[in-house]
Amino acid sequence: MVGEVAGRAKVLVKERISEAGVELLRQHFDVDVRVDMTDSELTERINDYDALIIRSATKVTAGMLEGSCRLKIIGRAGTGVDNVDVKAATKKGIVVANAPESNSVAAAEHALALLMAQCRQIPQAYMSMKAGKWERSKFGGVELTGKTLGVIGLGRIGMLVAQRAKGLRMDVIAYDPYVSAERFRESGLEQAETLDDVYAKSDFITMHMPKTPETAGMVGDAAFAKMKDGVRIVNAARGGLVDEAALARALDSGKVTSAGLDVYTQEPIPPDFPLLHYDNVVLTPHLGASTEEAQDKAGTIIAEQVIAGLLNQFVSNAVNIPSVGPEALEAVGPFLPLAETLGKLIMAIADGPLEDFTIRCEGQLAEHDTRLITVAVVKALLEGRVEEPVNYVNAPSIAEERGLKIAEVKEKRSRDFTNLITVVSKDRRGDLTAAGTTIGPKHKPRLVKIYRHDIDLEPARHMAFFQYDDVPGMIGRVGTALGDKGINIAFMNVGRKKVEGRAVMGVALDDPIPQEVLDDIVKQPGFYEARAVEL
Ligand code: NAD
Ligand code: MLT
Questions:
Q1: Considering the chain, what is the average pLDDT of its residues?
Q2: CB 532 within 8 A of CB 464
Q3: Percent of the chain having pLDDT more than 70?
Q4: Which atom of ligand 2 is nearest to the CA of 76?
Q5: How far is the CA of 289 from the centre of ligand 2 (A)?
Q6: How is domain 10-102+293-310 classified at the CATH fold level?
Q7: Which end of the chain is more exposed for a tag (fewer CB within 10 A), N or C?
Q8: Which of 76, 79, 286 to mutate to test ligand 1, by most ligand atoms within 8 A of the CB atom?
């Protein structure tokens, strides 16, 4: 999926990851573990590395990536990629991959720990005892059982928190506009229609959404005003989801009884961080993922992702390649070479520029997420036609920049084939089609339609296609013209069902066919079109 790495690739591990992960990387690459490296040093030295591994402290900015022409993958040993300018990386064709499931349990448990700690004032009581006091009456608390927990964001971590809260005999109400009603039904959780419902009903509120333009500052003055008096807040997701100044005001007014925070708008927090001085706010320094288990998993998973990226294999956790589940990947993966072939083919046979494409997946294939098929076709449409190297990461954004219109169609019923991929466009002569299927357990690609003709031909590295009058002697003429130039035909086939009176002939060759040979053939009577295709 990414460019070839010449020699032994170099990986920079810029933040601490598990030794198991580093060891795995060392089996394949030269690895520099440089947790002391500053951001400016990183900017200077970025071209020394093929891969960069970070956690949440390193900010990978567009400026930093501007000078990089070597970096192929950024591995984020954790979940959030808000510290990486993914758009800038994508434009550069750099894969950004994370290890999202590695620390979900750790983060969920930490969120609940922050809830329990504030409800029973455990840190405060501990500090008091350390100071030699015995203040039993000062540190009363409230129970979780029977209380309503509002969960905002029902993704991996939100769901784990909700399930565990149920185990603690809490009522859970969750809000997530991007989660289907079915998932809510399956989980048995109460689905809030609006955020206001969560605010109105919850005794405690915990947030588990990513930081996006939509969620940044979401819990501010207006939100606090809608909450129950005495509500308690947990944020172990991302700093800035809660407006910290607004939280201070809500604590001052007594609207919020207490809060537990693991993440902050600025990390590390500045010395004058206002919430530091509230006894009813429990703070931890971004420890959500800091368990042995999570770090082991994050280090190993991110090492595997980087290895896949540098060895040109599919990077399953890439956030800037359509992420498809393992089942869909198993179903769709074998069709990617065919999809690329069809993209190259349609460009090679086009007469004039092509702008509009429809990519149709039919048959069993259409039961799966086929976005990768589209990306594979788009990559092939662009490769060799734009300045920059095109890969699965930057192909969609380059296509968009260039105004290519790409439509995707899926049909579960296919008339003649178990699976069929068709790429349709229009050149100055009219409709243009390249379609193919795969054969056998090894999914060998097979072309089944070219121009508007049915054909049955295995794709080959060097090919030529001819449109001609279906009269005796035409195949012989092509054979003679190629033979005269010492070009061997490996195999060939014809599509005899005439379209506008013409048939099509496809030949696979041992060598590329020079343009003058094609020109000589097409000059002969009865030939209309001759195209060389290099796949
Ligand atoms: P996820 O992508 O699985 O879940 C996020 C959920 O938020 C999704 O279901 C999404 O639909 C939902 N969401 C998005 N916008 C929303 C909105 N406007 N309102 C309500 N819901 C919205 O992510 P995850 O792995 O569960 O991680 C959740 C958060 O926890 C992320 O911010 C992540 O960075 C953070 N995190 C923190 C730590 C830590 O150390 N404290 C560790 C891991 C993850
Ligand atoms: C994450 O997003 O995974 C967390 O912020 C944890 C981390 O990177 O340490």
A1: 93
A2: yes
A3: 98
A4: 8
A5: 6
A6: Rossmann fold (3.40.50)
A7: C
A8: 79
